[in-house]
Design goal:
Mean pLDDT: 81
Helix content: 10-25%
Structural class: mainly beta
Number of strands: 8
Number of helices: 2
Largest sheet: 6 strands, antiparallel
């Protein structure tokens, strides 16, 4: 049995996001691969969490270790940031991406 697999027109080659860098105190528009690895690379993490940011269906992806405070000893994560729409303080990098009606990541 063979299957004819068609790549959806929804698959994108890249995504535009906003990278929050608390170490340099900058917010930069970046282009990432639309994959989990693209998110991991952007926020310099091996685990992440995401949170709803605003009514425009934007989400922020954060280093999961920054939420629990369980950083490996060899990492220096001592820069933090706040969002006006959240009450928590976050450690490390943050990546903001948009989300469409189907829950897929889109440009921020």
């Amino acid at each position: 049995m063979t299957y004819d697999i068609k790549v959806s027109s929804l698959v994108r080659e890249s995504l535009n996001g906003l990278l929050i860098d608390p170490f340099e105190r900058t917010i930069t528009k970046i282009n990432i691969l639309p994959t989990l690895l693209g998110i991991y690379d952007a926020i310099h993490a091996d685990i992440f969490e995401n949170y709803y940011v605003n009514r425009s269906n934007d989400y922020i992806y954060l280093d999961g270790n920054g939420l629990t405070g369980t950083y490996p000893e060899n990492q220096d994560h001592q820069a933090f940031f706040l969002l006006s729409t959240r009450s928590e303080m976050f450690a490390g990098y943050g990546l903001i991406l948009g989300t469409d009606e189907q829950g897929l990541s889109i440009d921020a």
